[in-house]
Amino acid sequence: MEQTLVFITLAFVLIFFIWGKWRYDIVALLALLGGMITLFGTPPNIIIATFRAGYVGDTFGMFDFAPVGISLTIAGIIFITLLGWKFLPRRHGKSSDNDLFEIDNYITEVRVQKESKINGIPCSEIIKEKDEDIMLLGLIRRGKRMHAPGRTEIVKNNDILILEADTENLDSFIKRTGVKLAGKKKFRKDAEGSDEIETREVVVMPESPLIGRTAKNIFLRTRYGVNLLAIARREKKIRQRLENVSFSNGDVLLLQGRSFNIDEIISNMKCLPLVKRDIKIGRPQQIILGLTVFAAAILTVITGILPVEIAFTAGAVLMVILKILPAKDAYHHIDWPVIILLGAIIPVGIAFETTGGAEMIANQIISISSE
Questions:
Q1: pTM for the model
Q2: CA neighbours within 13 Å on the CB side: how many for 368?
Q3: Which SS3 state, helix, strand or coil, does residue 199 take?
């Protein structure tokens, strides 16, 4: 029975990550409602299981909470569907940090690789996905630009395509076709912090030394240590190579640099950083590897090889080691108030029990309930 439930759970998670059709807020709600189904679903389950193991000598199994948890999940879904949504306040205006500012589509360059899926096909076949809103503005071959390549023009290895798209559609296009960002050069591996690369959006301010200059003539990468991935300019088309575009006041730049000093670089460039967004353009997907680590942690708990707290802590550490989860993100996403609260309450509870306070209160409750 437990193996069946594990298989169903992992299959559901895999389907969600591959297709990604569900809204994240709905998934979060279902995760909260279903937290009581498994042993590791909520911290109280783990604490109670550990407490039981210390006193009885036997802990709870992976799905011992399932009968109660499934009942509560079904009841919660029915309540939210029929009645609960009516009590939710209606939000007006911007719904997230991503909507606090609007950016026109970026103009960027991508390089066709030998193994790219669009290598050897006509331009008319490049953008055929209905979900991708991308415009092909030009094609650069051997240093010469075709401003309006014909539909029958065959794309060749090492061609550079000039595209207009937002970050989401651009990321989808790169992953689907296997092209590479033309401005995304690798940082030196022996340099400090080279394994922590970050992408940031900045606005060129009036006092910026970049104004009137190009990435090429100021040696942007050498001087500032950042890659220029894309440029967005309101209501204006960019007709030049990105490295030859003169920066103007109000331009939005998509920059890539090392996490440990990118804020200082942005300040030196006298640019205004925009609200951080989860921009992951051209990064390799590690969904399967992450699910493998997660499944291995679950199996070690089910088979009794490791207790749940050790298995999932080891799984989290392994994800950081394999760079599935960046170390800085792991640190920032730890709920420190909960850790401190539990660390303070557990000793108090033990002291309360050893001094006889818990027994006295329990006897009083039994005495009152029996009257």
A1: 0.49
A2: 5
A3: strand
* Chain-centroid distance, C-alpha 245: 31
pLDDT digits (tens, 9 = 90+) for 337-347: 877 887 788 78
**CA gap 238, 296 in Å, rounded:** 50
Which amino acid is present at 187?
F
DSSP labels, 20-40: --S-HHHHHHHHHHGGGTSTT
- Token match 């669009």: residue? 118
Residue 15 has pLDDT above 60, yes or no: no
CB atoms within 10 A of CB 234: 11
**Strands 252-258 and 227-232: what pairing?**
antiparallel
Looking at beta carbons, which pairs linking 234-243 to residues 24 or more positions away fall under 8 Å? 234/104, 235/104, 237/107, 237/137, 238/107, 239/147, 241/109, 241/140, 241/145, 242/107, 242/108, 242/109, 242/182, 242/183, 242/215, 243/183, 243/214, 243/215, 243/216
Residue, of 370 and 8, whose pLDDT is higher: 370
